[in-house]
Specification:
Number of domains: 1
Distance between the termini: 36 Å
InterPro entries: AKR, Aldo/ket_reductase_CS, NAD(P)_OxRdtase_dom_sf, NADP_OxRdtase_dom
Strand content: 15-25%
Oligomer: single chain
Protein name: Aldo/keto reductase
Radius of gyration: 18 Å
Order of helices and strands: EEEHEHEHEHEHEHEHHEHH
Shape: globular
CATH class: Alpha Beta
Number of strands: 10
Strand order of the largest sheet: 3-4-5-6-7-8-9-10
Largest sheet: 8 strands, parallel
CATH superfamily: NADP-dependent oxidoreductase domain
Pfam family, one: Aldo_ket_red
Structural class: alpha/beta
Number of helices: 10
Length: 279
């Protein structure tokens, strides 16, 4: 990626922005609508939400207003949502997709994901995603929070492999095994919580690298994502942070710096462990 609007190509040929806005824990209301509008105004083209976030309607309003205000077309944007694990049967997944579309006020989604693997329920849900894809109702399909064994089990019975695996990924959780498996199987790797919900922003090693480049710690982490070939969707509602997060294309981390950042890995999560699914 050389700029904010550069894309990566999924194995089915669909082009997906390599950088976007996440809206996890952003409640419905003016703040959400303005965050989406500000992101699009400042060049973001990818917005990531989910049914469980309870904010698809606000995202839809922000998208609609941003399209009008910036003279953009729907196809200029890439919108992602996810099916929640309280309804992963074939029929429930189809219904959940239609409900997300209705709330977002859209005719189609660019990417639809199974949010969590759960306990083998995802196989029926994946069959529904394949149907939605074949019918042209979604441009790309994928999964989220899948470990290698989940992916292996899915690939044994799937007609199509996922185009994306979106997982928790940051310098304390580099997910090297999952990332390698995805790369070997042409499944694009995407990071949620790339800034570890702010836990890494005071880290001494990252602060030193940031000072060297005249950048913020957040920018260093997001640049590390990009140079690792990872799609990333940092969350922010503040306009100046939305701008700052994307201002990472005017410098490069050295190989040594990349190694130093990766060496911070402790296999430590801020979110749930997909192998200990209890919700």
């Amino acid at each position: 990626m050389k700029n904010l609007q550069d894309t990566v190509t999924l194995y089915n040929g669909v082009k997906m922005p390599g950088f976007g806005l996440g809206v996890f824990k952003v409640e419905e209301g003016k703040e959400l609508v303005e965050a989406v509008k500000n992101a699009i105004k400042h060049g973001y083209r990818s917005i990531d939400t989910a049914a469980i976030y309870g904010n698809e309607e606000g995202v839809g309003v922000g998208v609609k207003e941003a399209l009008e205000e910036n003279n953009l077309r729907r196809e200029d944007l890439f919108i992602t949502s996810k099916v929640w694990n309280d309804g992963l049967s074939y029929e429930e997944t189809i219904s959940a997709y239609e409900e997300s579309l209705k709330k977002l006020g859209l005719d189609y989604l660019d990417l639809y994901l199974i949010h969590w693997p759960g306990k083998d329920q995802y196989k029926e849900s994946w069959r529904a995603l394949e149907t939605l894809y074949k019918e042209g109702k979604v441009k790309a399909i994928g999964v989220s929070n899948f470990e290698v064994h989940h992916l292996e089990a899915l690939l044994q019975q799937a007609e199509m492999k996922p185009m994306i695996n979106q997982v928790e990924y940051h310098p304390r959780l580099t997910q090297s095994e999952v990332k390698a498996f995805c790369e070997e199987n042409e499944i694009r790797f995407e990071a949620w919580s790339p800034l570890m919900q702010g836990e890494l922003l005071q880290n001494e090693e990252l602060t030193r690298i940031a000072k060297h480049h005249g950048k913020s710690v957040a920018q260093i982490i997001l640049r590390w994502d990009v140079q690792n070939g990872v799609i990333t969707i940092p969350k922010s509602t503040k306009e100046h942070r939305i701008i700052e997060n994307a201002n990472i294309f005017d410098f490069q981390l050295t190989k040594e710096e990349m190694k130093q950042i990766s060496s911070l890995n402790e296999n430590r999560r801020v979110g749930p462990n997909p192998n200990e699914f209890n919700f």
